[in-house]
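Journal club prep, shared notes

We agreed each person brings one worked example of a sequence with its structure written out as tokens. Mine is Protein fadF. I'm keeping it raw so we can talk through how to read the token line rather than staring at a rendered picture. Sequence first:
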Amino acid sequence: MISHVLASPATTPVTTTLGIAGIVLSLPAWIYFILAVARLYRFVAAGKPSYERTNQPLQRLGTMLKEVFFHTELVRKPAVAVAHWFVMLGFLIGSLVWFEAYIQTFAPDSGWPIIGHWAIYHLAEEVLALGTVIGIAFLFALRISKGTRERLSRFYGSNSAAAFFVEAVVFVEGLGMLLVKASKIATYGHASWTDFVTREVAALLPASATLVSAFALVKLLTGMIWLVVVARNLNWGVAWHRFLAFFNIFFRRNPGGAKALGAAAPMLSDGQPLTLETLDEAGDEPTLGVGKLGDAPWKMLLDAATCTECGRCQEQCPAWHTEKPLSPKLFVTDIRDAAVANSAYLTDPATFAADESHAGVDVLKLVGESQVIKPDVLWSCTNCGACVEQCPVDIEHIDHVLNLRRFQVLAESDFPSELTGLFKNLETKGNPWGRNNSERQSWIDEARRDGLEVPVFGEDVHDFDDLEYLFWVGCAGAFDDEGKKTTRAVVELLHTAGVKFAVLSKGETCTGDPARRAGNEFLFQQLALDNVATLNGVFEGVPQGQRKIITTCAHCFNTLRNEYPDFDGHFDVFHHTQLLSRLVRDKLLTPIPRTADNRQPITYHDPCFLGRHNKVFDPPRELLGLTGANLIEMDRNRNEGFCCGAGGARMFMEEKLGTRINENRAAEAVATGAEVIAVGCPYCNTMLTTGVKTVAEKQAAPVVKDVARLLRDSVLVDGTLPEPRAKAFLESPRRTPRREDKQQPKVVATPPTTPGAPVSATHTPATPAAGVPAPGVPAPTAGVPQPGTVPTPAAIPSVPVPGAAVPPPTAVPTLQAAAPTPTVPTPASPSVPSPAVPTPTPAVPTPGAAVPKPTIPAPGSAAPAPAVPSPGAVPPPSVPTPAAAAPKPTIPAPGAIPPPAAPMPNVPVPGASAPAPAVPAPTPSVPAPGAAIPRPAVPSPSPTAGEDEAED
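Then the structure, token by token:
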């Protein structure tokens, strides 16, 4: 081909000189760019191993090709999607035309052999060149019109200089494609139907072979300038995403294309999930979250390098919209800039050791007042998922926020003081508010006094053979006044429809969502293991597909459905609006429709963990429509719904910065003119009720009600419920024989081994269900992340709490055993004594075995009491009036231990200056049974300025 080009009659000394100049100038640029690519690869590869990022490669490839070439993540802004599609293809396929310039500088009349004569090639060149010029001009104008100085602009904080440079070069390249082609037509003719634009431009240009070569050289050198400038700036995501987006989409968490929503990513150590079971196998210093750049998994670094700074995440973030310091875009780009600036320390640790200019300073630390991420930024996140949902290159913001929080809680004991009370309440009482577990029975007693049947598993029914649903009430549904009204409404509707269900009453404990979202991963795992043991006992003999749970709390729904399968908890979980919608469709509930002149205006707020995280949008709206209400949608709804401010454990923290998120959302709801704000989550109910009181005039304030209460009111006949239908299964039940052993009766759920140790499930692990559809609908809900990304623990660990006596081995207790329940000695140092629990099931370490290492920093004995919110905070639920005692159960409910019966993983104390824990090597011997294991002293919390008023 080279000889053909040089022998071309169009080749002249001038064009030859131009061609040689192009090659000579290109070589250094290409070498510099290739070295930059190698440096970027080493930078990303220096990260810690990531988990399950290469499985199902064909599915990943298909997802990547679909997202890239069909722009499925950009369709929310159609005009931008079309413009970007032309620019992207112009960059990719136009690269072929760009390399053709090397030929055209030497021989202006030449081009690619073979394909250069195809009409389809010339048509593609024409369309893409024109589309690139128009598309980049549109995007350029869009960036200018949006501005970069206004806080609410999505381009605020973006690197505008880099964006304008990249867009200008792409614009010149597009023009170069058109001008080279037009000048060839002007010089040599041969225009065809494919040259519908360039032949018109050719009429304006002189016939000159030198002009063709000059245009080709300009096109070539413009690209060389782009390569050099981009290679010099590895933190220009607006340029590098053109290469990295393919890889970032390919290595996403969910190969099938679902966003990284629903379940939180597992905490990793050396690329494998770190659980209470695997803690002892994780080495002397397991990685607890991400505390410095050296701990970051490579996917986190790839995410940071890929960010194009488009600002779609920032545009939807509730924290940013209410004057908080958190911007998801700036969160990612700040990590990227710090990582690039310190890339030498990541890729070559010896350099870091030899550089004494940073002696005494941890340049790789991520969180701190003088570090990359400020604490206020980290703790402002509500985990609503708007950033993840909007990101066109699949950056996983929530996973990175949680990893940083995990390190702050588990390794640094540095977190907002309000969380001390939350952790202590969950650890000792099994609920966020520290209420006595017996109070979970109060709403049941009230309902029974009113003649409403509420079957309690373990009291009224002792197996699941004649049941179809287990109603998981949740903490808010049992303790909060508004939550109890929703619970009562659901029970009344189930009773009226003849649904066979039961509740656990005092057998429930918190699912652990607040603990996990606040970063206390081990406390979450303990709660999850206890609940899974209880639920597996309840569902013993029930096959997969019929282990049905309904719940009114969006957070319980998400945790039970998406996170418990990682701990051998495989259940079919439904939100109450899904089941109630089916009952209406099946005519088991009959709402009385309103007349046309009596259609009450209602607006609906999408709970983030029901809607965006799990894609349940339609059932609540269907129910509202069936009640005859006039549904008025807020501007921000469904996937773009605005958070109420309670997620990410923010429900239990003060909102001291900016305006309150719940007030922002309440103002939007009030502006619709609706008389009722319908919700599908008790957290949303609390937050919006508080917000409405602040933003609305008393006479015009709408009422906040759960969808279930609105449906219940619509089925009333003369103010009373219809006669209940006979109890019947909605679907034919399938049961497997329960395992019987006369010598050793079956244990439904076993208590923890030691204070804070997990419980093992007795049910044989089953294959996790593939998505959970609305009841009666075979297809799973679209877009829901599927569980199962973490291996199911083979056995449940026995991690003794430091300071607790090691109990002797004993026999396994059973429900039918008449022997008195033994107790475990109270740990030496915690201020809250542990109640009596059954004798532990798993074997106790025998003398000579290695002593398990401590897991997380223990709370100091002087830990503050649960925080009392200051004015403006969401108050805890009020204490209900004592009700008459329920009949004494004859057989205890499975798992109905005082939840949790013993202290769970110790709660870190904020403000303590403890370094990242170094787990000691196992000692050669174990203390004699009964000897106390010394408990390490932990400094008392040292509240920072402004925190005193938040503590009680």
